[in-house]
Amino acid sequence: MLLPLPAGEFRAYLFDCDGTIADSMPVHYLAWQQALKEWGAVLPEDLFYAWGGRPVVDIIADLNERQGLAMPVEIVAARREVLFQELLPTISAVPGVLQHIDDAYRRIPFAVVSGSTRESVTASLRTLGLLEKFDVLVCAGDYARAKPDPAAFLLAAELLQVAPHSCLVFEDTDLGIQAAGSAGMASVRVPPPWER
Question: Where are the alpha helices (DSSP H) in the chain?
Answer without folding.
Answer: 25-37, 45-50, 56-67, 73-87, 95-104, 118-128, 151-160, 174-182
